[in-house]
Amino acid sequence: MNAHTLTDHHVSDSIEHSGGQRLGRAFAARLDMTIKRSGLTSQRVAKSLGVTEGDVALWRAGITLPRNADCQRLAELLHVDISWLSGRSAPAERR
After folding, report:
1. Hey, CA dihedral for 82, 53, 61, 29, is it positive or negative?
2. Does the pTM exceed 0.85?
3. DSSP type of residue 65
4. What is the pLDDT of residues 26-80, one digit of tens each?
5. Which of 5, 14, 70, 73 is most exposed, with the fewest beta carbons within 10 Å of its own?
6. Would you say 18 and 73 are in contact if contact means Cβ atoms under 8 Å apart?
7. Where are the domains positioned within the chain?
8. Where's the HTH cro/C1-type domain (predicted)?
9. Using an 8 Å Cβ cutoff, are 9 and 52 in contact?
10. Are 10 and 67 in contact (CB under 8 A)?
11. Would you call 8 helix, strand, or coil by DSSP?
């Protein structure tokens, strides 16, 4: 395992937090949709963030959540609001 995977948060571990599982599914769905819409590959996203393609695949599947710093960088790379990407707000695209 790499250092990034060790610090990722497993969605199943977030169940005790209010709405953790729901937010994990929302994040995964929004991330997957946004990556597809951007035309980027998981490999390119991973390279841009300095993580493995496996990390990105786990995030897209909703198995793990990225660290806060990676989530911020994802939002910047994909040109979306971090609150929206995290599933905490209504859809809004950053410009």
Report:
1. positive
2. no
3. E
4. 899 999 999 999 999 999 999 999 999 999 999 999 999 999 999 999 999 999 9
5. 5
6. no
7. 3-85
8. 36-85
9. no
10. no
11. coil
Residue type for 95, please?
R
**Residue found by looking up tokens 């250092």 in the block:** 3
Residue type, 75: A
- Give me the amino acid identity at 50: G
Residue 80: beta bridge partners? 93
Pairing of strands 9-10, 64-65: antiparallel
Q: What fold, for 3-85?
A: 434 Repressor (Amino-terminal Domain) (1.10.260)
Q: What are the tokens at 94?
A: 């950053």
Cα torsion 38, 19, 82, 9: sign: negative
